[in-house]
Task: inverse folding
């Protein structure tokens, strides 16, 4: 197997741009902000009434089995996973469950449900909490539900590393494939918009409009994709994470980029475009490449940002090779490199 | 073909209901002490389950000028310092992987309840402890935060080892931790996982688990890096695997197929076979379903050997440390490997004819060990296994 034959064979996404690739591609090409006053999520007092909400969708139209309860993050991840599986023709899957992995990222997990659960605790007391909510309040609820929905039993990693979470999930998927630990990894991220998350963001001094969304990418070897009759969409060439003091984020971003390009075997000049979250874009300063920041379109999608940016890069394959870059207020920067398919 | 990079464990740290330190944990387990007591940190509001592994009187050894730490991060901090001290070396190239169920929720909860300033809500972010540890320890390597319920710290060891093998870090501190919070206690109680009796792993009359708090820290490093700096390995992290049973949010599948699968993959990844494993540190929660299905998984994996393969379950003594459990049990596995002693499983009285394992009970068992497997599982079907061999 050539060292760089790890590919993205399919993907799908939901965000303020729309539901699925077609809607998203049209809105992406148009380029206007998709942040508006929220209609679904409750806003905290004092917040600017602007957020990147996913347009209304009905999960049962996407997912065959009804669910008694889902956290918003779980709902978005299940929807994105179902759409990506259809796009990748793995519904049903030809891959053994133990050879199929999941790597997912989110900054806040199921904080919406945790908030609901704790509201009951405070108002009614610990004996009258709702048992059904508790397992859905775990930060791994969404990835676990996806594993159950589709019997995905292989390597299983749930990143909650702030803004870098889903970028780290993509890197983990790459390493899993490189090590031969799986034949296919569904990698991505999901972040739901909820009142507790919005309040916690404000508490952290984050007053930019929040966004929500999910993107899932099917990552496998090029030969297995081609054997299934799928033309790879792009190569996932490399990635890296660097960390440092928050005040040294410029230097940390630079280290992450250098390491990611080295891992990818590309020179900086080969990159056509960088997609970055706001903090990473600010840290880049005068970058060598055109930089597009998703936050202006979608709101701050935090832990889902890396996967959403990778998905958006795939909407415009002529702008590959692309660098996907996320940085967090904790001083961590993660980057992945996508190249056009051979 | 280049042989895979070897991963050494060079430092261990723990804060458990026994107190601070790996030695206290190890000696407590060997002496058969219970870490369980009546819980009194917050009002349990009439809940039937009132006992757990509460850590009392622990003050994290913070440094001058360091901001006060939330409870969970305080545990993680203490365990990290102990592991770093044992391993030696600096922190310039040191990365960090943390793992828990609830992060720094004890702090976020107070804000949600209106008992702390709204700014404390920011601690609901799952990576809060990672940020605080990385800043306090001035780490220069990459950081990541995982949440995989009670398999979290075993999965973090697996992820840490993968990062080292891929050359993404030279040395990594892997920290598992959790504090008992109001959400955790009431939620776990509502699911009827907790017993009013003692925890009796693999006993016929087992009736549930009891939850504890604390932290574990294991310092992992690549062989070449360890050699170059003159580090002293404690054990080799030889195999690892993560997975999901794809079955149910809170119940294991028949014969714990997910556990059997990750244990099988961890052994194979080490280049070994089940015949090479000579001790299993089990997940052993003391619940009816877990212990039966885990015993069946061991039967399926080890065949007839399962009935005379020594198994221990530390939760009988120290309780179920949630996100720290897998790492604590990995640490105990390493101590067993080094000392040639397996600590007993507490409170075992009546064998369960359906859960047939060679459980170490009563007193520590002295046995020469060359390969120890530690198995972990958690809500949401999460599974992880790690395998250690001598340094």
Result:
């Amino acid at each position: 197997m050539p060292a760089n034959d790890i590919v993205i064979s399919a993907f799908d996404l939901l965000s303020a741009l729309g539901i699925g690739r077609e809607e998203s591609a049209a809105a992406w090409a148009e380029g206007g902000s998709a942040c508006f006053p929220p209609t679904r999520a409750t806003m905290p007092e004092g917040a600017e009434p602007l957020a990147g909400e996913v347009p209304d969708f009905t999960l049962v139209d996407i997912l065959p089995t009804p669910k008694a309860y889902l956290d918003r993050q779980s709902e978005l991840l299940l929807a994105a996973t179902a759409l990506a599986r259809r796009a990748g023709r793995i519904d049903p899957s030809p891959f053994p469950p133990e050879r199929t992995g999941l790597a997912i990222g989110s900054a806040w997990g199921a904080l919406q449900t945790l908030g609901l659960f704790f509201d009951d605790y405070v108002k009614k007391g610990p004996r009258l909490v709702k048992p059904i909510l508790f397992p859905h309040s775990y930060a791994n609820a969404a990835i676990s539900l996806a594993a159950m929905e589709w019997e995905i039993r292989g390597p299983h990693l749930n990143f909650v590393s702030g803004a870098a979470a889903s970028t780290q999930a993509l890197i983990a998927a790459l390493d899993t494939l490189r090590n031969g630990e799986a034949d296919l990894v569904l990698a991505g991220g999901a972040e739901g918009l909820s009142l507790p998350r919005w309040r916690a963001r404000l508490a952290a001094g984050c007053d930019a409009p929040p966004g929500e969304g999910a993107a899932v990418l099917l990552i496998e070897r090029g030969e297995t994709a081609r054997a299934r009759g799928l033309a790879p969409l792009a190569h996932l060439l490399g990635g890296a994470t660097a960390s440092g003091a928050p005040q040294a984020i410029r230097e940390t971003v630079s280290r992450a980029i250098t390491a990611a390009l080295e891992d990818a075997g590309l020179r900086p000049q080969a990159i056509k475009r960088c997609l970055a979250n706001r903090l990473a874009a600010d840290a880049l300063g005068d970058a060598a490449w055109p930089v597009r920041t998703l936050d202006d379109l979608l709101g701050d999608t935090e832990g889902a940002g890396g996967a959403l940016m990778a998905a958006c890069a795939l909407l415009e394959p002529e702008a590959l090779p692309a660098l996907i870059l996320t940085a967090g207020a904790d001083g961590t920067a993660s980057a992945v490199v996508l190249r056009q398919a051979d | 073909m280049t042989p895979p990079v070897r991963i050494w464990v060079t430092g261990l740290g723990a804060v458990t209901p026994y107190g601070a330190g790996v030695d206290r944990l190890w000696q407590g387990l060997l002496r058969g002490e219970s870490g369980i007591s009546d819980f009194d940190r917050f009002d349990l509001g009439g809940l039937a389950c009132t006992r757990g592994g509460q850590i009392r009187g622990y003050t994290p050894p913070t440094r001058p000028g360091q901001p006060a730490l939330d409870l969970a991060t305080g545990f993680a901090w203490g365990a990290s310092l102990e592991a770093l001290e044992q391993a030696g070396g600096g922190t310039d190239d040191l990365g960090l992987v943390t793992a828990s169920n609830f992060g720094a929720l004890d702090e976020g909860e107070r804000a949600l309840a209106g008992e702390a300033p709204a700014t404390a809500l920011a601690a609901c972010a799952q990576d809060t402890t990672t940020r605080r540890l990385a800043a306090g320890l001035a780490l220069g390597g990459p950081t990541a935060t995982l949440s995989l319920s009670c398999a979290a710290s075993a999965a973090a060891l697996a992820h840490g080892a993968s990062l080292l093998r891929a050359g993404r870090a030279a040395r990594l501190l892997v920290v598992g931790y959790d504090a008992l919070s109001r959400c955790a206690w009431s939620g776990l109680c509502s699911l009827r996982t907790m017993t009013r009796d003692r925890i009796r792993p693999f006993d016929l009359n087992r009736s549930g688990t009891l939850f504890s708090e604390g932290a574990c820290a294991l310092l992992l490093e690549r062989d070449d890096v360890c050699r170059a700096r003159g580090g002293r390995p404690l054990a080799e992290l030889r195999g690892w695997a993560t997975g999901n049973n794809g079955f149910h949010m809170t119940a294991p599948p028949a014969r714990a197929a997910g556990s059997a699968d990750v244990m099988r993959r961890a052994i194979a990844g080490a280049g070994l076979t089940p015949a090479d494993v000579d001790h299993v540190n089990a997940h052993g929660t003391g619940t009816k379903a877990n212990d039966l299905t885990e015993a069946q998984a061991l039967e399926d994996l080890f065949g007839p050997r399962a009935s005379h393969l020594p198994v221990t379950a530390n939760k009988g003594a120290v309780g179920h440390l949630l996100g720290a459990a897998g790492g604590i049990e990995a640490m105990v596995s390493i101590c067993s490997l080094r000392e040639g002693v397996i600590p007993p499983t507490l409170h075992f009285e009546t064998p369960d004819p359906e859960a047939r394992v060679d459980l170490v009970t009563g007193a520590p068992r002295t046995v020469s060990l060359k390969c120890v497997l530690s198995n972990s599982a958690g809500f949401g079907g999460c599974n992880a296994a790690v395998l250690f061999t001598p340094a």
Summary: The mean pLDDT of chain A is 95. The domain at 236-340 of chain A is CATH 3.40.47.10 (Peroxisomal Thiolase; Chain A, domain 1). The first helix of chain A runs from residue 20 to 30. Chain A touches chain B through 75 residues (CB under 8 Å).
